[in-house]
């Protein structure tokens, strides 16, 4: 699938990857937020689109702006133009991209959506339950419309969220009110995004997307995929241990120590921070060893570690 640029300006890009099918079906994928967004990353088509033979339109933003900028109208016009010949369009997005998939669903003529842990709005007046994103709203410097204001309220498809995360629950409840035909699918302790456990299984996310694209969504099957995957998903173990700290601290701390010692680096880092916050004697040394092993440390990790060390008095 070779890329074709359909729209590009200093804030947004739309790249088309043509599938091998009849050209009548497309999926519009809105990228999720990245750690440091100061420009565009490479665009790549999802593998499920190639398997299905459908066209894939990848929508990117240069900033962590929830796809809201002085170029939003131009982006909406570009999406409308790019999708005008398709008989059926599905939109997908995770977190910030999930908000955009809902917000621009009418512009891209989507009839179905897979929105994973999307935000409804991060304005403190509408989302007081999500204080961690209120600073990001202030940096947007513009109003943030609720997604049904621009989107297609008749959308069907999957609204996937983690009910163990207060912010996810709050956003999902507001989205369900604005998009009543969506099927809510709760995946406890999946994390953010809520498909963290399913993603650990090869092709798990693609299987879910195919269900939505083909209009064969089975919420029970998605939940079963989550249950099957969680047994071997470090993300699930981390989130479950975090939630268990208050009521079962001994078991939770033992699990966190195991994760901090042998899980993949992102999980080791998160587990180490939790142990550091609980005053674990070996946490600072484990985190130090982890960073020494890495060839490139994400800037956000260093900032978070410095804050945690100061809070712990280390």
| Sequence stretches where pLDDT stays below 50 over 5 or more residues | none
- Could you give the order of strands across the largest sheet? 1-2-4-3-5-6-7-8
Structural domain count = 2
Got a strand count? 8
**Going by CATH, what is the homologous superfamily of the largest domain?**
Alpha/Beta hydrolase fold, catalytic domain
Question: In percent, how much strand structure appears in the residues?
Answer: 15-25%
Query: How would you describe the shape?
Result: globular
What class would the helix/strand composition place it in?
A: alpha/beta
CATH fold group of the largest domain: Rossmann fold
Short description:
By secondary structure, the protein is of the alpha/beta class.
Structure write-up:
With 314 residues, the chain is α/β, with parallel strands linked by helices. The chain has two domains: 3-230, Alpha/Beta hydrolase fold, catalytic domain (Rossmann fold, 3-Layer(aba) Sandwich), CATH 3.40.50.1820; 234-312. The chain contains 14 helices and eight strands. An eight-stranded mixed beta sheet has the order 1-2-4-3-5-6-7-8, with helices on both faces. The N and C termini lie far apart (51 Å). 44% of the residues are buried.
């Amino acid at each position: 699938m070779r890329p074709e640029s359909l729209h590009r300006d200093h804030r947004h890009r739309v790249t088309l990857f043509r599938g091998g099918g009849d050209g009548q079906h497309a999926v519009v994928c809105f990228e999720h937020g990245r750690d440091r967004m100061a420009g565009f990353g490479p665009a790549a088509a999802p593998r499920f689109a190639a398997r299905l033979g459908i066209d894939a339109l990848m929508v990117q933003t240069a900033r962590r702006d929830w796809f809201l900028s002085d170029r939003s109208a131009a982006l909406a016009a570009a999406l409308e133009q790019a999708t005008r010949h398709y008989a059926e369009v599905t939109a997908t997005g995770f977190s910030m991209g999930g908000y955009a998939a809902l917000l621009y669903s009418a512009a891209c003529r989507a009839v179905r959506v897979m929105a994973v842990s999307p935000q409804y709005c991060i304005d403190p007046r509408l989302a007081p339950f999500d204080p961690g994103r209120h600073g990001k709203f202030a940096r947007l410097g513009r109003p943030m419309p609720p997604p049904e204001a621009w989107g297609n309220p008749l959308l069907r498809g999957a609204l996937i969220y983690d009910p163990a995360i207060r912010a996810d629950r709050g956003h999902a409840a507001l989205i369900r009110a604005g998009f009543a035909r969506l099927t809510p699918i709760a995946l406890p302790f999946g994390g953010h995004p809520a498909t963290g456990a399913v993603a650990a299984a090869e092709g798990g996310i693609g299987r879910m997307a195919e269900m939505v694209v083909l209009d064969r969504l089975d919420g029970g099957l998605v939940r079963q995929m989550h249950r099957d995957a969680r047994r071997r998903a470090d993300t699930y173990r981390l989130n479950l241990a975090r939630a268990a700290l208050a009521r079962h601290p001994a078991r939770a701390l033992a699990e966190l120590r195991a994760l901090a010692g042998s899980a993949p680096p992102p999980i080791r880092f998160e587990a180490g921070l939790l142990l550091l916050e609980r005053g674990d004697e070996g946490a600072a040394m484990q985190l130090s060893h982890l960073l020494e092993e890495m060839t490139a440390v994400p800037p956000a990790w260093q900032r978070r570690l410095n804050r945690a060390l100061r809070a712990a008095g280390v």
